[in-house]
Specification:
This protein is α+β, with helices and mostly antiparallel strands and 438 residues long. 25% of the residues lie in helices and 22% in strands.
Length: 438
């Protein structure tokens, strides 16, 4: 095997972390491991868990792109981590490791939904991407998606996506806009990568430093124009109009889902995306699929396994049904991992949503649109769409939704009451409980 390149730390131009470019957080080094399509073997999962225990803080974190993070790495730990990832097949290209960002419909080919099974395209895409040297210049934030026609991963905001419109026909989307071309399944990857190269060419022509396609001036139209000039790769023209905006996709419901072959896929939600060693060990199966909604799909289970697994995962505090109050709750890193955070938002979120029963919030279950907890006003990691924000202020929290805001303390009961009001107050509601509201 070729030797690994020198380990690099994130540069100021594009600080998105990777497995080789480590971000220095308040609690140590942070490595982000790309998992194209979210699919991992059981052995790869065990390698990641062992690395987290040996080199990091012992925990794994799921991201909103179906990737994984390890935290608490010490100086020099990047080198053994990179070696372990490479040996497990999780680092096929050191030069492209940060740009292997690919969402894929998690249940494609299994539950009978969608129009085509996109699973074979995942490995094909990854290999083809890594084989194009120029595409290593993409930003670590650039995002691809393979959608099987159900539009579940399109709400993740991919720069370049293909979505199935028939069993052997896929349409191209550029920054969410339909590009007017479609291709057969065997040419879809070529089209996606040609679009990525067109983005880089257009970025250079504009003299821009854009990380995302939408950041270019008239980006989707200009990239589409370059593809038409390129010729055969664009496939056939398609004048059939398609929606250019996609609503926020609902997360896969936690619990069992029947597969077409009679087996069961089990969807398990991970509260705030964090997995300690006990949870991660219990999830070890021959295959795991990480979703963009910080959940994990365990496919191909026998009926007799499901009940026992659901009981075990519920006892470990994982989300096994749709009534769990943490189902639609997200949070940034907070303290102690982030130096900018004003509070340990993850601990506070769990105390409010799950541990503060009985109370006005516990009786309601998940709030419509979800709740996002932020350690500061930057609101890192906030999902798209309608969300109630809980933002640390230093003296407590501000709870806001639409045009309504209220500042409260940090007591779980007080926060629960404020969130309950957010879910039922009239549209013009606005009050201040302590200091002036924003």
């Amino acid at each position: 095997m070729p030797s690994l390149p020198a380990v690099r730390r994130a540069d100021p131009q594009d600080s998105c972390p990777g497995a080789l470019r480590i971000h220095q957080a308040a609690d140590g080094g942070l490595a982000r491991v790309r998992v194209p399509g979210g699919t991992l073997t059981g052995r790869q999962w065990q390698v990641l868990l062992a690395a987290a225990q040996e080199l990091g803080n012992g925990q794994l974190e799921l991201t909103s792109r179906g990737n994984l993070q390890l935290r608490g790495l010490g100086p020099g730990d990047e080198v053994p981590l990179a070696g372990q990832l490479r040996d497990a097949g999780l680092l096929p290209s050191p030069t492209h490791e940060r740009v292997r960002n690919l969402l894929a419909s998690p249940l494609s080919g299994r539950d009978g939904g969608g129009l085509l099974d996109i699973r074979p395209l995942i490995a094909e895409f990854d290999a083809a991407l890594c084989a194009r040297p120029a595409l290593a210049e993409l930003s670590g934030r650039f995002l691809f998606a393979l959608d099987d026609g159900r539009a579940d991963v399109l709400a993740g905001g991919p720069d370049i996506a293909v979505t199935a419109s028939a069993p052997d026909s896929l349409r191209l989307l550029l920054a969410g806009q339909y590009a007017g071309v479609r291709v057969s399944r065997d040419r879809a990857i070529e089209l996606m990568l040609a679009a990525a190269e067109a983005f880089l060419a257009e970025r250079q022509a504009q003299g821009a430093n854009a990380w995302r396609l939408a950041e270019l001036s008239d980006g989707p139209a200009r990239v589409a124009s370059r593809l038409r000039v390129a010729g055969p790769v664009t496939g056939r023209s398609d004048a059939d109009p398609r929606p250019t905006a996609h609503p926020a996709a609902s997360p896969l419901p936690p619990g069992p889902i029947r597969q077409r072959d009679g087996a069961t896929a089990l969807v398990i939600g991970i509260p705030l995306g964090g997995l300690d060693a006990a949870k991660a060990t219990a999830l070890t199966r021959p295959q795991l699929i990480l979703t963009p909604w910080r959940s994990i799909v365990l496919p191909d289970l026998g009926t007799d396994e499901v009940t026992d697994l659901l009981t075990a995962y519920a006892e470990l505090g994982m989300i096994t049904d749709g009534a769990d109050p943490l189902r639609d709750v997200t949070a940034c890193t907070g303290r102690p991992g982030c130096a900018s955070a004003l509070s340990d938002v993850r601990a506070d979120a769990i105390a409010v949503h799950r541990s503060a029963a009985p109370g006005p919030l516990a009786d309601r279950g998940p709030l419509a649109g979800g709740v996002h907890w932020s350690g500061c006003a930057r609101r890192c990691g906030r999902p798209a769409g309608t969300v109630t924000d809980v933002i640390a202020t230093g003296s407590g929290y501000e709870v806001s939704s639409a045009d309504r805001a209220v500042e409260v303390g940090s007591a779980p009961a007080e926060l629960a009451a404020a969130l309950a009001i957010r879910s039922s107050a009239p549209a013009g509601y606005h009050r201040t409980a302590t200091a002036g509201a924003r």
